[in-house]
Amino acid sequence: MNASLFSANSEGACPACNGLGLIYTDLAFMADVASVCEVCEGRRYTDEVLGYRLRGRNIVEVLAMSVEEARGFFTERPVRIMLDRLADVGLDYISLGQELDTLSGGERQRLKLAIEMSGATDVYVLDEPTTGLHMQDVDNLIGLLDRLVEAGRTVIIIEHNLDVIARADWVIDLGPGGGHDGGRVIFEGPPAELVRVDGSLTGQYLRRRLEPIAAG
């Protein structure tokens, strides 16, 4: 069985609407009118495709599942790994069939992270992975990175987020300023030692960030 049969953009697409689920009518000088395809009833696939079922669900019903629901449905290890990564980056609420243009910039950023981290790569190099993430999602990301390290992977991050820096195993601080005012290694070591380096701007901000936590 060809995998393209289960793609609404390929072999399995409803021929009447080309897998869109909608029929667009051109009204010349007026805006196009969209109506639900009468052949597939908006389901986008041919009857042949909809006849195939996995544990009682057809492709449309599976794609309508949220990531969280799908984690309880799928037992196949490759699928579960990807679903777990999506949940780790805080995307457990999106549906499996959700279109990319309905995701926010932050959600697309997290999706890319989940895809990259679902493989068996030994070394990850991430450039500011917290961009566009909510504080709670940053915490989820750090937890994911911790698990990658615990599994024997190497994670190298270029980052300004103080929460990420505070929970790193080893920090290389470049400075003393930015752009043409930087380029020198100011510090190498654990975050606990970085906060005591007077010549490091990162250390100064990190110390301010951690003082209220220590006081509490």
Quick tags:
single chain, 216 residues, alpha+beta, ABC transporter ATPase like fold, two-stranded antiparallel sheet, two-stranded parallel ribbon, 9 helices, 6 strands, elongated
Would you write up a description of this structure?
The protein is an alpha+beta fold. 37% of the residues lie in helices and 13% in strands. The chain has a domain at 1-62: ABC transporter ATPase  like domain (ABC transporter ATPase like fold), CATH 1.20.1580. The chain has a two-stranded antiparallel ribbon with strand order 1-2. Strands 3-4 form a two-stranded parallel sheet. α6 (135-150) links the parallel β3 (123-127) and β4.
How many DSSP H or I helices? 9
CATH architecture of one domain: Up-down Bundle
Q: Quick one: CATH class of one domain? A: Mainly Alpha
Radius of gyration: 24 Å
The arrangement of helices and strands along the chain is EEHHHHHEHEHEEHH
CATH topology of one domain: ABC transporter ATPase like fold
In summary, what is this structure?
The protein has helices at residues 47-50, 59-63, 67-73, 77-88, 105-116, 135-150, 162-166, 191-194, 201-215; strands at 22-25, 33-36, 123-127, 154-158, 171-175, 184-189. With 216 residues, it is of the alpha+beta class.
Helix-strand layout with pairing:
Elements: E1 22-25, E2 33-36, H1 47-50, H2 59-63, H3 67-73, H4 77-88, H5 105-116, E3 123-127, H6 135-150, E4 154-158, H7 162-166, E5 171-175, E6 184-189, H8 191-194, H9 201-215
Parallel strand pairs: 3-4
Antiparallel strand pairs: 1-2, 5-6
